[in-house]
Design a protein that fits this description.
39 strands, 27% helix, 6-stranded antiparallel sheet, SPRY_dom, 751 residues, Tripartite motif containing 67, coiled coil, flat, zinc-finger, alpha+beta, metal-binding
């Protein structure tokens, strides 16, 4: 977060920050330094602006006094850090007469000073010879000039009105956060000790390295962290306990002036309107995006603008900023995980590179002397490949670390902003912060968190060629294929079928000739091959309902079979959804209603099967009788796939059924009739079929009433729902039903 709290001009923590029209912030002392005035004509330029003009020491002192631009925060008075007191020359000093190349690009004076962040800073320029400081200060007021200030970050120019720098609002929220940050940092390192000392107790820390984040005493710094070599670009700063005192004192002067240090728990004075010093902010101008007071609405420029309550807009903007932070927080978490992945790749590249070098040396040393030159070439090839991979990964690490640092700092800063209870101060910066957070989130484009290179070296040395082919010896890119990656978002189940999808990992250059998909038996048993081919999407039908299957896949090529992927667990449906199957039905069967309603064009009994096959679990479905004239005997039940389709269900040994008339029902298998039970069917009746393959029983219901004991026992195998009917009957199938929990007692057969 510290980067968010540093001025872009001086590189230090903000002191009396002001908000520029572009929403960026700058220290008030720095703003005095970079504020310039551009005369309308060169002839109005004072002689002091010309490099050949003479300058006296008294003139330099006068210019220094006039260049100290003061800032009034509404409550009056106090001077800020780096500036002069609030004297009568404030209005004149706000209009510093300099011609800046950063403002127009065509300056008569080229400033040579630069801030720590590389921003050009205009030096103080002496007044013309013979003039007094007061005259130099008053000269711009009488002349025809236009004051401006160029933002050091976005380089947009902002014109100053007659109030000068006082026309920019003070960023009280940022000032409070800087003060709180300084106090916390000073408290955390008040007694900072050297972290590398052998002495007991350690010596007090003299410096801290911002890159290493280590405290050093003077002796350890010379010994362990010299200012040369790889440490030459590291920045050594005093410990925070030594930095905090002056910075805290400067940053503690409140908007109302005064230099007193604020205590952490002290309540800040409510801010007053910049245009009406006696009025507090109470509303928010939506048009101008700024807090305003009631007097601004009655008489000022905001009288016809759209306004809303200050508190409501405060809460709304806080909510927007919090919502935007969620996205960047997720990206920061992914970036941290990505950095760990990249560092692991670095280690793997190092290890794999060493392994390849050792293997290459062993192979080449076993060959004749004629291989010596070629061996050196091949070693160079491997080294270049490794260096290339290392460079690419290091570049990614540096780039991602920079982005993560910026995002993390912005997050911490925004969280501190959200903690503030100053609505107007918050709304001064909330729009800009929300846009920054959104822009920061958009920087994490798709593919930014994926490695650009793999840790694998696709180099396999072929040592088989004859001696005359030694000079053509080279690497061949042929090795076992890598582990396929299961695409979990595309893997799914439907009824008793599962669909699996997979892909090869990125940066994989090994050829793949096909894949082998394996599935277990749904009970945790052994895996078996269910698919071999080149496709990366496969659907397996005919599985058990209410079962858990484990699946895995591997790739193969001419070098052999690669390793298995991770195992994915798939759960088939608890209940079955199916329809009548037109492909296996007798040709006289007529289906409608999306294959859920069946009738027959023949007076003879014809069989139709369902689309689901059951071999395990408990299943229940119902058939509603839409048409029935009391004469035919429809049969309901289950059958194997090869059941006879041109006679009543149950007359062969491939079907188990209950056939009914309008008064009673019978069970039938192998043309054997058993268990006659009262209770027939009529138009509007419902017949239920309960197949329990855990207990190996088949039970029937009519209108919710169980028809006798379980019709059949010891039912084992693979079965499909089945129905036989003729042209006087029409039924509609209902599936996906829960198993009945309670049943009615069966009616006893009549004598």
């Amino acid at each position: 977060m510290e980067e968010e709290l540093k001025c872009p001009v001086c590189g230090s923590l903000f002191r009396e920050p002001i908000i520029l029209p572009c929403s960026h912030n700058v220290c008030l002392p720095c703003a005095r330094t970079i504020a310039v005035q551009t005369p309308e004509t060169e002839q109005h330029l004072p002689a002091m602006l010309h490099p050949r003009g003479p300058a006296t020491s008294s003139g330099l002192a006068a210019a220094a006094g006039s260049a100290s631009l003061d800032y009034d925060c509404g409550a009056g008075g106090g001077g800020g850090a780096g500036g002069a007191g609030a004297g009568g020359g404030v209005d004149h000093a706000d209009k510093l007469s300099l011609h800046s190349e950063t403002d127009s690009g065509y300056g008569s004076y080229t400033p040579s000073l630069k801030s720590p962040n590389g921003v050009r800073v205009l030096p103080l320029v002496p007044p013309p010879p013979g003039s007094s400081a007061a005259a130099a200060a008053a000269a711009p007021r009488g002349g025809s000039t236009s004051s401006s200030l160029t933002c050091p970050q976005c380089h947009r120019s902002a014109s100053l009105d007659h109030r000068g720098l006082r026309g920019f609002q003070r960023n009280r929220l940022l000032e409070a956060i800087v003060q709180r940050y300084q106090q916390g940092r000073a408290a955390a390192s008040a007694a900072a000790k050297c972290q590398l000392c052998d002495r007991t107790p350690p010596e007090p820390a003299a410096v801290m390295c911002e890159q290493c984040e280590v405290f050093y005493c003077a002796a350890c710094q010379v010994k362990c962290h010299p200012s040369r070599g790889p440490f030459a670009k590291h920045r050594l700063v005093p410990p925070p306990s030594q930095q905090g005192a002056p910075g805290g004192a400067a940053g503690a002067s409140g908007p109302g002036g005064g230099g007193g240090t604020k205590t952490p728990g002290a309540a800040r004075k409510p801010p007053t309107c910049a245009d009406h010093e006696l009025e507090n902010y109470s509303m928010y101008c939506v048009t101008c995006r700024t807090p305003v007071c009631y007097q601004c609405l009655e008489e000022g420029k905001h009288s016809k603008h759209e306004v809303k309550p200050l508190g409501a807009m405060w809460k709304q903007h806080k909510a927007q900023l919090s919502q935007a932070l969620n996205g960047i927080s997720d990206k920061a978490k992914e970036a941290k995980e990505f950095l760990v992945q990249l560092k692991n790749i670095l280690q793997q590249i190092q290890e794999n590179g060493l392994d390849y070098e050792a293997c290459l040396v062993a192979q080449c040393d076993a060959l004749v002397d004629a291989l010596t030159r070629q061996k050196a070439k091949l070693l160079t090839k491997v080294t270049k490949e490794r260096e290339h991979k290392l460079k690419v990964v290091w570049d990614q690490i540096n780039h991602c670390t920079l982005k993560l640092r910026q995002s993390t700092g912005l997050m911490e800063y925004c969280l501190e902003v959200i903690k503030e209870n100053d609505p107007s101060g918050f709304l001064q910066i909330s729009d800009a912060l929300i846009k920054r957070v959104q822009v920061s989130q958009e920087q994490w484009v798709k593919g930014a968190l994926e490695p650009k290179v793999s840790a694998e070296f696709d180099l396999t040395l072929d040592s088989e060629p004859l001696l005359q082919s030694i000079h053509q010896l080279d690497f061949i890119q042929m090795k076992l294929p890598p582990v396929p990656l299961l695409q979990l978002e595309k893997c799914c189940t439907r009824n008793n079928s599962v669909t699996l999808a997979w892909r090869m990992p990125p940066f994989s250059h090994n050829p793949v000739e096909g894949y082998i998909l394996e599935l277990d038996d749904g009970d945790g048993g052994q895996f078996r091959e269910v698919y071999v081919g080149k496709e990366t999407l496969c659907t397996i039908d005919g599985l058990h309902f209410n079962s858990t299957y484990n699946a895995r896949v591997k790739a193969f090529n001419s070098s052999g079979v690669g390793p298995y992927s991770k195992t994915v667990v798939l759960q088939t449906s608890d209940v079955a959804w199916f329809t009548f199957d037109p492909s296996s039905a007798h040709r006289d069967i007529v289906l409608s209603n999306d294959n859920q309603t069946a009738t027959c064009s023949s007076y003879d009994d014809r069989v139709v099967l369902g689309t689901a096959a059951f071999s395990k679990g408990v299943h229940y479905w119902e058939l509603h009788v839409d048409r029935y004239d009391n004469h035919p005997d429809p049969a309901f039940g289950i059958a194997r796939i090869n059941v006879v389709k041109d006679m009543m269900l149950g007359k062969d040994d491939k079907a188990w059924a209950m056939y009914v008339d309008n008064n009673r029902s019978w069970f039938m298998h192998c043309n054997s009739h058993t268990n006659r039970t009262e209770g027939g069917v009529s138009k509007g009746a419902t017949v239920g079929v309960l197949l329990d393959l855990n207990k190996h029983t088949l039970t029937f219901y009519i209108n919710g009433q169980q028809q006798g004991p379980p019709a059949f026992e010891n039912v084992e195998g693979v079965f499909m729902p089945a129905l036989s009917l003729n042209r006087n009957v029409q039924v509609t199938l209902h599936t996906g039903l829960e198993v009945p929990q309670t049943v009615r007692p069966p009616k006893l057969p009549s004598n």
